[in-house]
Request: fold
Amino acid sequence: MDERILKLSNQINDEVASITSVADIENVRVKYLGKKGQITDLLKLMKDLSVEEKKSFGQEVNDLKDQAQEKITSKMEELKQKELEAELNAMPDFDISIPADLTRGSYHPITLVQRECERIFKSMGFSVEDYSEIVSDYECFESLNIPKHHPARDMQDTYYLENGQLLKSQTSAAQNAIYKKYKDSLVNEGKTIKSIFPGRCFRNEATDACHENTFFQMEGVMVDKNISISNLIFFMKTMLSEVFQKDIKVRLRPGFFPFVEPGFELDINCLICGGEGCPSCKHSGWLELCPCGMIHPEVLKAGGIDTEIYTGFAFGLGLTRLAMMKYGIKDIRDLNSGNLKSLSQFTDDE
Ligand code: FA5
Reply:
């Protein structure tokens, strides 16, 4: 064998034997077998050889090329296998035969009740409005006939922000904006204002089984010519019988809110104790669920509505309490607890 070929063959053998990574073996392949590699360079020597020499030299170079190719390929396979094993060994143990956890998430009970109420009111022609959780003093109080320093503000221990805005303490805070949004279509197109606006409310409450500092209400308003308390009672009754799918005992008693006149408290017979009295209803057998009344003329005026022509009703449904009653949840605090074990047992068909 030609000296130079033998030397190169030994060099390749030594180098391949000492390689420990896939990246390095690729460099070796380029170094010897690439277009400008050392084996290819050997072929350039052929031009100075006789025809006879060319034949045997060419054959030896080709043999070297085949052997080098084979060595490098098998080393490459060996190193890839080693790297894969090292990678697998470094992974935490897991058992690929364990079935995947396919448990589906579920909606929060308040979301379920809210959607149900939205469905019911939409079917009766109400629009569903979204409103901010941070509102101005005007939206939450002044536009609702509750001027600064009015004692009615004491009923809602409100969280004020440093910039004078506040965390909405009642969904009534959206009333003024709704009247302004729809007053033109009321006057020009004769379209009744019929809207509901569910939302989160905040009050600095001492919490108990039926009071939370963060809870949901759903406000509803209807304004047109000749709207009366009969309309109010009809919609309240329809909503409750649809939500509970059974006859529910309710009572309407006078209630004071500066933004309605007359105002009512609509209480529901406690479904946790059947009216016997329990912590969920403060042992009264009744739960305050949905204050309501005929919208005070001052409130309509603030919304740009002519009170000589139009009247309306408003209600403020306690959505969180409705969820308690619908699902038999004894303590309102469970709803904000984040306890998935108890919250995920309620579901709908969606
Ligand atoms: C109001 O918030 C009035 N804005 C409701 C209203 C609207 C009256 C339109 C007239 C016309 P009140 O503070 O009572 O009213 O709250 C209404 C309902 O929200 C209550 O009946 C109750 O169901 C619920 N609620 C009030 N405070 C809490 C609380 N801390 N935790 C849970 N639910 C509450």
Notes: The longest helix spans residues 51-90. The CA atoms of residues 27 and 93 lie 34 Å apart. The beta strands are 127-128, 134-135, 166-167, 193-202, 214-224, 250-254, 260-269, 286-288, 292-295, 311-318.
